[in-house]
Design goal:
single chain, 491 residues, alpha+beta, 3-stranded antiparallel sheet, globular, disordered C terminus
Length: 491
């Protein structure tokens, strides 16, 4: 976000990307990671470029070099979705498509984490293929949930058979749930929200124990692993987005006690023993707990959340800072360091800390101010707030999704007549409602319609009110697949 204050640097990065990026390369790439980092990063930068002071081309935000790069990168991922189920392979070759020997086993998050970026891309470019494949993948997971309403960790995208049947809210599953909620908010989509709420009931029924969430067998609900993973710390933030703030705070405080015990969150934490899990004692400066603190602080203004932010800053500075950056903590028991710094530390951890302590940041806009830009399709409202962060913390402006709709010529003529009629009655205010072109998708409605009053680019507007879309135990010998690895009891 600080790059917004350095226009020349932002422009230089854009120029370098334009000149040097070529996606036609013989490289096997993670479909999931390429989407959340490359496609999501380019879309976010594209939508923030005008605010950063970069001179944008005519037709922005419906066109632009970063948008074209995002589209090119996303098209390289489309072959992965060409499966009988619509669920994508985990890896694709950027030049040749899916390799003949590619494994059909993909983690749940690797299937269900596309709707935010792909729907944004479809709305900005007018090509529905991206949103369509993302929706098909989401619905395939929903269709293959267990009879008790849970999904496993890894699935075969050809046969739809579950390979790893551990169900939880952590690694390998996490961002699937996140994108059901964020996709519902971004698109005002009741179907996606209803999916999540059904999952939420099953998660509470089978995995929740005293404000902790365990791993269970997806068909039986029996506990397979009584651990807390650091990746699960996003959950309180997600709960806050659906208005479940009380439960979110209770779970957050559990996780915060672990942080205070070690000065960070270990990758795995044995809940009954109250200590780290062997060979999972590391802390790679993950953002999830700080992410939840940022969301919850916006909802509650509870000073406890600022205390976590302070503790995080002090802890990271004290145990992780080195001459050339901030190193992964290899073992939280003695704070030994590893010779690496993960990219999500800068993309997410630092960003969420920054936003937690910057209440006046434009990201927190409540809709009282906004910008109006002229597109080939008429006036467009931007920067009114309500930003949706993708799972790599790249903010997407939801208002931008309503800027690039191709409308029938007859509709333009009607609106011109209405403008002419109402211009004669200067003492009366009015709003032109735009007709949606989503066809059968009645749930995807404009969150805000642009006022047709003439004026400067900055405008004030009253905040509109919209509803927020709104176990018996078994021995620990079950397999748990996490980010492509299968852990056994002797791991």
């Amino acid at each position: 976000l600080q790059i917004l204050g350095n226009v020349s640097e932002f422009q230089r990065v854009v120029n370098v990307l334009q000149e040097g990026v070529d996606f036609d390369i013989d490289v096997n790439a993670s479909v999931f990671e390429t989407n959340i980092r490359v496609v999501g990063g380019l879309l976010s930068a594209h939508l923030l470029s005008k605010k950063a002071g970069v001179e944008v081309e005519v037709g922005w935000p419906c066109s632009g070099p970063l948008l074209r790069m995002a589209e090119e990168a996303a098209r390289k991922l489309l072959p992965a979705f060409q499966t009988p189920t619509g669920m994508p392979y985990g890896t694709v070759n950027l030049l040749h498509g899916v390799n003949p020997g590619e494994t059909p086993v993909t983690c749940t998050a690797g299937i269900g984490t596309f709707i935010v970026e792909f729907a944004t891309l479809s709305h900005l470019t007018g090509d529905p293929v991206f949103e369509d494949v993302a929706r098909k993948a989401l619905k395939a997971l929903w269709k293959n949930r267990s009879d008790i309403g849970l999904v496993g960790n890894h699935i075969d995208v050809i046969t739809a058979k579950w390979v790893a049947q551990d169900a939880g809210i952590g690694a390998g599953v996490d961002s699937y749930f996140e994108y059901l909620v964020k996709g519902a908010i971004l698109l005002q989509d009741k179907e996606l929200m209803s999916m999540f709420l059904e999952y939420n009931k099953a998660i509470k029924n089978y995995t929740k124990f005293d404000d902790w969430y365990l791993w269970v067998q997806m068909y039986k609900g029996t506990v397979s692993m009584p651990v807390f993973q650091s990746l699960e710390a996003y959950w309180p933030g997600l709960q806050s987005l659906i208005g479940d703030v009380d439960n979110a705070m209770r779970t957050f405080l559990n996780y915060y006690t672990v942080w205070k015990q070690f000065g960070g969150l270990p990758e795995f934490y044995n809940i009954p023993q109250g200590y780290t899990v062997d060979k999972r004692e590391g802390y790679p400066l993950r953002p999830e707990l700080i992410e939840s603190a940022t969301y919850l602080y916006r909802a509650t203004r509870d000073p406890t959340l600022l205390e976590l932010g302070r503790d995080a800053v002090e802890s990271i500075e004290k145990i992780s800072k080195v001459d050339c950056g901030f190193a992964t903590v290899k073992d939280l028991r003695d704070h030994r360091l590893d010779n690496r710094m993960e990219s999500f530390f800068l993309a997410e951890t630092v960003k969420y800390l920054y936003l937690l302590f910057d209440p006046d940041n434009f990201i927190h806009n409540d809709g009282s101010v906004f910008d109006v830009v002229i597109t080939p399709y008429g006036e467009c409202v931007l920067n009114a707030g309500g930003y949706v962060f993708n799972t790599e913390a790249h903010p997407i402006d939801p208002a931008a999704l309503h800027c690039c709709r191709k409308r029938k010529e007859e509709q333009w003529e009607v609106e011109d007549l209405m403008r002419e009629f109402y211009s004669l009655k200067k003492n009366k205010k009015f709003t032109l409602k735009r007709v949606s072109d989503h066809g059968e998708r009645e749930s995807a409605k404009d969150p805000e319609d642009a006022s047709s009053e003439k004026g400067g680019e900055k405008r004030n507007s009253k905040k509109s009110s919209h509803s927020l879309l709104s176990c018996p135990s078994q021995s620990f010998n079950s397999r748990l697949a996490v980010l492509g690895q299968v852990f056994l009891d002797n791991t």
